[in-house]
Amino acid sequence: MTDYKQGILKLLKGLGLFQLARYVTRKRLRILCYHGIWMDDRQPNPFNFLFMRSETFSRRMDLLDRLGYPVLPLEEALKRLGDGSLPDSAVVITIDDGWYGTFRNMVPTLTARGFAATIYLTTYHAENGTPVFGVALQHILVTSPRRVLDGNTTRIESLNGRSHDLDDPVARDFVYDQVAAFAESRLSAHERVDLLAEIASTLQYDWAWAASSRQFGLMSLTEARECSADGLLTFQLHTHRHRVRHNGASCAALEIAENRQRLLRVSDAPTRHFCYPSGKWQSEDFAPLEAAGVRSATTTDTGLCSHKTHRLALPRVLDGERISDIEFEAELCGLMELRRTVIAALRGQPRTAKIS
């Protein structure tokens, strides 16, 4: 956000509009959405919503505490949203994927403050101990010192015969797509790690750092079990392979079943809350989720939840490293939600999916 827009928000706060918005939206549930922590400031972080600094996350949690937002477990909050007993301006903290940085940094921050949180754990990489291929590849292509990839230095035939300028977004996306397709169709999880190391070496990227830091890895199932021991943090469904469709067909039922099976090694608590991979959803997803016993599902649509919001299409407030504190507070108090509601009304558009 520009300095000008931040200045406007500070002015609106000074005029009391943040407090007014908080009052108007007090019966709405704020579900915060986080992902992972960027663990080494010496390495460039091109991601905004995927990884934030641990200091940023700690500051946000301090802000919740200082401003008096009650933090509730997800299941309790949804129950109380439905029966009308939700505390004013209640907050739920959700964390997607289950990155190692979440285990190392976010979990201690939450437990020190006594904040409950739901971690939606995708279990394929957690079980295999391998980095998330697509995210690691993206970081290599965006930040590597060598900015031209000689296609003849790779074993990927579709890249051979020419050079690829990685500073050109179109060329970089082409390389990403070709490498990802090759890995998906031909390689095992551990063979994909070898491919990442090869490409990193070609581009003079420090793969030893990426591997040893576990920046692009998830917490293990054993580490997740350690987190869940005191009951403050709960682990819920995010599919096994981070997908609900494969080759154009729904695979939600299988993915949830395999995910749920692995989560039994983390905790014996019921797994009935779900997060759509990458936040992408459509109403056709509701039937397989309901059949799998899913009671709620979160998206990456931005917004607050009312008692009328469909429980399988819950919006959230996404937080990121390049979100300023004043922007975060404007979302938290409901000012930005009121703005979105007015704009949607003027356009004749519904804000969120409703319970039918």
In terms of topology, how is this protein built?
Elements: H1 3-14, H2 17-24, E1 30-34, E2 36-38, E3 51-53, H3 54-66, H4 74-83, E4 91-97, H5 100-113, E5 117-121, H6 124-128, H7 133-143, E6 148-150, E7 163-165, H8 169-186, H9 189-202, H10 207-213, H11 221-228, E8 233-237, E9 245-246, E10 249-250, H12 252-263, E11 273-275, H13 286-291, E12 296-302, E13 314-318, H14 325-333, H15 335-347
Helix pairs in contact: 2-14, 3-5, 7-8, 7-9
Please name the defining characteristics of this protein.
single chain; 356 residues; alpha/beta; TIM Barrel; 2 domains; two-stranded parallel sheet; 15 helices; 45% helix; globular
What does this structure look like?
The protein has helices at residues 3-14, 17-24, 54-66, 74-83, 100-113, 124-128, 133-143, 169-186, 189-202, 207-213, 221-228, 252-263, 286-291, 325-333, 335-347; strands at 30-34, 36-38, 51-53, 91-97, 117-121, 148-150, 163-165, 233-237, 245-246, 249-250, 273-275, 296-302, 314-318. It is built from 15 helices and 13 strands. The mean pLDDT is 95. The chain is an alpha/beta fold and 356 residues long. It folds into two domains: 3-129 and 217-347, Glycoside hydrolase/deacetylase (TIM Barrel, Alpha-Beta Barrel), CATH 3.20.20; 133-213. The protein has a seven-stranded parallel beta sheet with strand order 8-5-4-1-13-12-11, sandwiched between helices. Strands 2-3 form a two-stranded parallel ribbon. A two-stranded antiparallel ribbon has the order 6-7. The protein is globular.
